[in-house]
Amino acid sequence: MSCQEELVVEKVCDIYEKLSVLEDLNPSKHVNTLFTQLVLTCMPQCPVDVTKLCKRVQEIRSKLIRICGEAEGLLESHFSTLIGSYENPINHISLFPYYSNYLKLTHLEFTMLSENCSQVPTKVAFVGSGPLPLTSIILASYHLRTTCFHNYDIDPVANSKGLHLVSSDPNLSNRILFHTTDILNVSNGLKEYEAIFLAALVGMDEKEKARIIDHLAKHMAPGAFLLLRSAYGARAFLYPIIDLHYLRGFEVLSVYHPTDEVINSVIIARKYLMPNHSLHQGLGSTILPSKCSEIQESNVLNHGNKLEELAIDEQLF
Q1: Cα 62-68-69 angle, rounded to 5 deg
Q2: Which residues face 267 on adjacent strands?
Q3: Pairing of β 148-153 and β 176-180
Q4: Quick one: which of 31, 34, 194, 222 is 20 to 30 A from 143 by CA?
Q5: In sequence order, what are the residues at sequence separation of 6 or more whose Cβ sits closer than 8 angstroms to the Cβ of residue 32?
Q6: What is the pLDDT of residue 45?
C-alpha cells in the first residue's frame, strides 16, 4: 500500500476502536463527531482495495459497516420523528442534515435511469426504505411526478414513520405506499415494477447481498431496471461493495463512482429479456454482464443540483 492508503486504513481502524466501545449510537455530539471524522477520512479519492487488506482489517471493516448501518438507522429515525412532529412534514424534510446529499444521489440515479429507459416508469419499488424514505420522496416530488412508489422495509416501525411523513400530502400519500415484509418473501409481486432501487444497507455482507440480488433476478420482469448502491475505494469502509459477479441475469449498463460528498457508487442494470443460457449457448448462467461502462462525472452531475434545475432532466424521458 502507498503511504496515503496506510494512513487512511490506520485512521479508520482508530475511529472504529472508539465507535466499537460506545453503548449508544443514537445521535449525540460525540457520536456525530466520530462519524463525521470517519466520513471525512473515507471521502477523498484513495485507491485502497479493501478486499485485499489483511484479515484483521477485513473483520474491522465488516463490523464497521454494521455499526454505520445501525447509526444511520438511528439518525434517520430521530429526524423522521422530528420532521413528523410538524403539521406538514414534507415541508420540513430538508431538516435532515444530509438532505443535500440525497438530492444529488437521487439526481444521479434519475439521470442514469432516464438515459437508459425510454418511458417514465409507472410503478417502481425501493427496497430498504427505512424510517426516512428520502429517495422515494425526492423522486416522487421532483423527477417522477406521476410514478407510484412501493417502499419495502422489514421494520414495521420504520414504515409507520415513513407513512406518517407523506400522509398529510394528498399527492404523495396516493403515490408512495409501504409494505412491511422481507423482500425475499416477495416473488410474483416483483414483476409489477419497471424499476427497483436497492438500498446500500440491504444485505450487509457478500452472501446476503448476493442472495437478495439473485432473488430479484429470478422474479423481476424481463427488461426491468435494477439500481444498486455500492461503494468504491476507502468509501467501502462505510458501505458494502457490490461485485458485478453478483449480477447474473442482468446486463450492467453503467457504473458511476462519485468524487464529491455523495458516498455511494451507483450501478444500473437491466434484467435480460431471456435466460442467459439462451443468449450464450453453452456458457450457462454464470456469464458476466456483457456491458459495463464508466460514466464520467461531467456527463451526469454537472447539470447542477438545485431543485429548480432538476426539473430539466425530466425531459430526458
Answers
A1: 90
A2: 228, 255
A3: parallel
A4: 222
A5: none
A6: 85
Instruction: Judge whether residue 82 has pLDDT over 80.
Output: yes
**Distance between CA atoms of residues 36 and 290, nearest Å:** 38
- CA–chain centroid gap for 208, Å, is 15
**Mean predicted confidence (pLDDT) in 144-169:** 97
Backbone angle region of 246, left / alpha / beta, with phi > 0 → left and psi within -120 to 50 → alpha: alpha
End-to-end C-alpha distance for the chain, whole angstroms: 45
Backbone φ and ψ for 108, nearest 5 degrees, come out as: -60, -50
Interval 36-81: pLDDT, tens: 999 999 998 888 999 899 999 999 999 999 999 999 999 999 999 9
State the Rg of the chain over Cα: 19
Nearest to 243 by CA among 290, 199, 289: 289
The per-residue pLDDT for 308 is 29
Alpha carbon distance 268, 104 (integer Å):
16
Q: What cell numbers appear for 213 in the block?
A: 440480488
For 4-55, list the strands marked E by DSSP: none
* Cβ–Cβ under 8 Å, residues 255 and 246: no
Residue range 85-108: mean pLDDT, rounded: 96
CA distance 273 to 295: 24
Q: Which residue has the cell 503511504?
A: 3
Is the pLDDT confidence value at 206 over 90? no
- Give the cell for residue 163: 407513512
Handedness of CA 123, 128, 129, 134 (dihedral sign): negative
Does CATH number 3.40.50.300 belong to domain 96-316?
no
Look up residue 112 and give its amino acid. Answer: M
Dist CA 87 CA 69 (whole Å) = 29
Mean pLDDT, rounded, for 280-284? 35
Average pLDDT over residues 103-112: 97
Pairing of strands 265-271, 250-256: antiparallel
Residue 140: exposure state from Cβ atoms within 10 A (0-12, 13-18, ≥19): buried
